């Protein structure tokens, strides 16, 4: 069944669970009781708010400060590592004291479900390279084999802008991965006795929500956690409101530039899935999750293509610094493709294909791949070839 048809069925299916006869006042012990499907992401029990995702908001705010630090030539490797991975006392090093001394740490939630060690080693290497190679070289001009500045961009010796590699990769490895490969999946939602507890309406100690409801909300928080009022505009930030540096920033851009209506589709699917949990309709929950997985994955595909095309345009016009900036963003989105989910819990593009192209990982001893390892010597054919170029591979992966 097409995703659009699944989505149209979600609300009628969920609404049927509403016909169970019991009092609204008894909703804490009867999951089928409660309000009708809301039109915004607002859920209450016994008059109390049941939606909570403060931990996700904290991590998104930490990411914003880390982004600034990864553009600051005074940042040391130790300082960057502390902001990304924390220490024995929790996270630290942030200017906002509320972000320190907490168990909410970005690194522990990065690439948590596949190839964790190898992917984290890449993120760590980018922090190290910025602090030890790029930052000390910013007084000079970047050129092939030489790190430095080029028209305002901080580049390594391969012409890569490390803050863009890091954060565009983090969009997939952190924000997207936590939503679609963790919090809205049965392996998380149904873990242990959570399905049984949710079905009978057993709440967490001292809380007004079940654990399953809370886990779904945490997934919601990785996208909407920095939005001031998620009841407006299908959860998108208001005009002029900051979007943060991760998934919401590009989700909003897709709504504006590539797929108008995606914001409504995803927002309504989050509502439908949350309500389905409250009335213990797990088929409807999983149908809503499938929509979220496929729609959010498209954000990565759209912007991987966007920045590859932007690179080609800028390089063709002689804007070398701008081209390297765009290609750095494209690199990160290509890296993020391994964290996408086609609704059947498979990525749209497998890691082996991605890493072969980016770094040459998996190549035979005679060499191969690593087409994007040195921006100074990148051949356009690896982007533009109609069959094996990266744009064609992305189109084929998403069926575009």
Largest beta sheet: strand ordering: 1-2
Rg computed from alpha carbons, rounded to a whole number of angstroms: 22 Å
Question: Terminal Cα separation, in Å?
Answer: 18 Å
Helix-strand string: HEEHHHEEHHHHHHHHHHH
Find the count of extended strands (DSSP E, 2+ residues).
4
Give the overall shape, derived from the CA principal axes: globular
Low-confidence stretches: 1-33
> How would a textbook summarize the main sheet?
2 strands, antiparallel
Q: What proportion strand?
A: under 5%
Helix amount, in percent?
40-55%
Structural class: mainly alpha
Number of continuous helical runs: 15
How would you explain this protein's 3D organization?
The chain is an all-alpha fold. The chain is built from 15 helices and 4 strands. The protein has helices spanning 3-16, 54-69, 77-85, 116-134, 162-183, 186-189, 194-200, 211-224, 247-257, 262-278, 282-316, 320-336, 351-358, 381-384, 390-398; strands spanning 44-45, 48-49, 148-150, 153-155. The protein has a two-stranded antiparallel sheet. Strands 3-4 form a two-stranded antiparallel sheet. The longest helix has 35 residues, at 282-316. The two termini are 18 Å apart.
């Amino acid at each position: 069944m097409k995703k659009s048809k699944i989505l149209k069925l979600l609300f009628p299916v969920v609404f049927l669970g509403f016909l169970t006869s019991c009092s609204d006042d008894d909703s804490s012990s009867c999951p089928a009781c409660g309000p009708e499907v809301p039109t915004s992401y607002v859920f209450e029990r016994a008059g109390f708010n049941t939606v909570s995702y403060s931990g996700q908001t904290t991590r998104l705010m930490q990411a914003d400060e880390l982004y600034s630090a990864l553009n600051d030539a005074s940042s040391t490797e130790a300082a960057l590592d502390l902001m990304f991975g924390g220490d024995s006392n929790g996270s630290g090093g942030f200017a906002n004291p509320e972000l320190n001394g907490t168990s909410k740490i970005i690194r522990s939630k990065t690439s948590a479900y596949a190839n964790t060690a190898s992917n984290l080693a890449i993120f760590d290497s980018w922090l190290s390279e910025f602090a030890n190679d790029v930052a000390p070289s910013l007084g000079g001009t970047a050129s092939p084999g030489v790190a430095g500045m080029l028209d305002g961009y901080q580049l390594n010796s391969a012409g890569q802008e490390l803050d863009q590699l890091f954060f565009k990769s983090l969009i997939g490895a952190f924000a997207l991965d936590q939503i679609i490969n963790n919090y809205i999946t049965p392996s998380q939602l149904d873990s242990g006795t959570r399905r049984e507890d949710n079905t009978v309406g057993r709440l967490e100690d001292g809380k007004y929500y079940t654990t399953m409801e809370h886990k779904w909300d945490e997934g919601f928080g990785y996208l909407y956690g920095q939005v001031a009022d998620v009841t407006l505009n299908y959860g998108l930030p208001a005009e002029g409101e900051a979007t943060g540096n991760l998934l919401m920033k590009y989700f909003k851009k897709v709504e504006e530039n590539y797929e108008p209506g995606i914001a409504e589709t995803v927002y309504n699917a989050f509502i439908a899935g949350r309500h389905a949990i409250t009335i213990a309709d797990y088929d409807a929950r999983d149908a809503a999750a499938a929509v979220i997985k496929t729609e959010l994955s498209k954000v990565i595909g759209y912007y991987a293509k966007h920045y590859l095309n932007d690179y080609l345009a800028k390089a063709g016009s002689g804007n070398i610094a701008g081209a390297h900036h765009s290609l750095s963003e494209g690199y990160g989105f290509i890296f993020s493709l391994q964290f996408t989910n086609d609704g059947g819990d498979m990525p749209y593009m497998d890691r082996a294909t991605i890493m072969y192209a980016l770094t040459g990982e998996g190549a035979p001893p005679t060499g191969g791949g690593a087409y994007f390892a040195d921006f100074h010597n990148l051949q356009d054919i690896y982007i533009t070839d109609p069959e094996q170029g990266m744009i064609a591979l992305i189109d084929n992966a998403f069926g575009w």
